[in-house]
Design goal:
0% strand, globular, 444 residues, mainly alpha, 20 helices
């Protein structure tokens, strides 16, 4: 859908989006306050998130609405069954299990305010193999901090000149999903870390980072060997690496704070530090008046774009709570006694195969987490397996967030993207398996 069409909304839709934006900004602020002061009611941020979803949900695409409804329906049935057999009812788990991830995503959306608008006098987009490589590293580096916002910023710029081509969409999809192998700023990795208490994000970086590097080398090889259509005329994003300064400051601050304190998780640190760093950068660059207008734009326009993330993570939270109740009522039955590299390798295959069947990786995580609770595996190892599976699965899943965004906003076929990415994920799979066995041998 072209940008000018997206901008045309009815007054009632605009009011609903603004109200949802206020609710989500409130969710972020109340969530941060709750991390610092325990007196803040734990249910307050989730309730704000669900109210925002109530406003944004009806305007989502049909696949996202159906997916969320299926998650909630299956989770509700599982909850009723589990509670009827003695499982504990925990309202905060049902409504807010994944809400901290939504607060983090709302926080990093603030970084989009630092991206300058595209002017009418922008030069023509660069072309060629070098541009392909720079665009690849650009979307990967930006995406590692500002999440899918990096893809939207780049694709918006590319789509101004001409409709997005499949070779551009493929690059954005592949380079971005590779970020999920290691970056805690990605929703799937944040979910993996949140569901594995005690996991070490530095170990995730140590073993997921090499897989991401192999993915970038593979993409470069594709370009050099003619596996990218019309590479000579490939139009890329004019990456200005000085724009990475604030994301780099944020990433450094999060890692430094994590090493200096044991009171907060990486997820909480990202959520708390991003508004401080982004707000300071806005004030320094634009001054109080323009910074205030930018924040208003964040509330009315930017943060309401999280409707898809609300549908995914709130629905998955209900599904996960229901599955926990079922397995709890069954006496913590598990199909295996340990979780080693062999099991993790099979789990990666499950991520890929279920994604080919349009089942989102969040479902696999929601099913596996309660199964692992009674065997107490290495949390960092589980988090690494989840992150690898998330990235490999999202690349081939037509219903993943990245492929749906490229389809609904820019006209690229999400089905073709998923199908064309099968060889990409299949090539990375044995590398991921090797890294899992390396972890087991050296760390486990």
């Amino acid at each position: 859908m072209p940008p000018d069409v997206r901008a045309t909304v009815s007054p009632s839709h605009s009011v609903a989006r603004t109200a949802a934006g206020i609710l989500l900004a409130g969710m972020l602020l109340v969530g941060i306050a709750g991390s610092v002061w325990p007196v803040v009611p734990a249910l307050a941020p989730p309730l704000l998130a669900w109210c925002a979803f109530g406003l944004l949900g009806p305007k989502l695409g049909r696949p996202q609405r159906v997916q969320a409804l299926v998650f909630v329906a299956v989770g509700a049935v599982a909850l009723v069954w589990g509670i009827s057999r003695g499982a504990e009812l925990r309202v905060e788990r049902i409504l807010g299990q994944n809400q901290p991830i939504l607060s983090m995503l709302a926080a990093i959306t603030l970084l989009r305010l630092l991206n300058p608008p595209v002017g009418e006098a922008e030069p023509e987009l660069p072309r060629g193999l070098g541009t392909y490589v720079r665009s690849m590293f650009g979307v990967h580096a930006f995406g590692a901090i500002i999440n899918i916002s990096a893809v939207i910023i780049m694709a918006d710029r590319l789509a101004r000149a001409a409709p997005l081509k499949m070779n551009q969409a493929q690059l954005l999809s592949r380079a971005f999903t590779a970020v999920a192998f290691f970056s805690p700023f990605i929703g799937g990795v944040a979910l993996a870390l949140a569901y594995t208490p005690g996991s070490n994000p530095l170990l995730l970086l140590t073993f997921g980072g090499p897989l991401a590097l192999v993915a970038l080398v593979l993409l470069t090889w594709y370009a050099h060997t003619g596996r990218v259509d019309d590479i000579e005329n490939f139009r890329g994003y004019p990456v200005h690496f000085e724009s990475l300064m604030v994301p780099l400051v944020l990433g450094t601050a999060v890692l430094l704070a994590y090493t200096l304190t044991s009171s907060y998780s990486v997820l909480s640190l990202i959520t708390m530090l991003t508004p401080v760093i982004a707000g300071t950068a806005l004030l320094v660059r634009d001054g109080p008046s323009r910074a205030s207008r930018a924040l208003k734009h964040y509330v009315t326009t930017r943060v309401p774009e999280m409707g898809g993330e609300l549908a995914l993570f709130l629905g998955a939270g209900v599904l996960g709570a229901g599955l926990v109740a079922v397995f709890s009522a069954n006496g913590h039955w598990v199909p295996f006694e340990t979780f080693d590299a062999g099991d993790a390798s099979l789990l990666l295959l499950v991520f890929i195969l279920t994604s080919l069947a349009c089942i989102h990786p969040v479902v696999v995580v929601s099913v596996v987490v309660p199964l692992l609770q009674s065997i107490d595996p290495d949390p960092s190892f589980v988090a690494i397996a989840f992150a690898m599976g998330w990235g490999l699965g999202c690349a081939v899943n037509p219903m993943s967030g990245i492929n749906l965004v490229l389809s609904t906003r820019y006209g690229a076929s999400n089905w073709a993207l998923g199908r064309n990415n099968v060889a990409f994920s299949a090539t990375l799979y044995p590398v991921a398996v090797g890294l899992l066995f390396l972890y087991e041998r050296t760390v486990g």
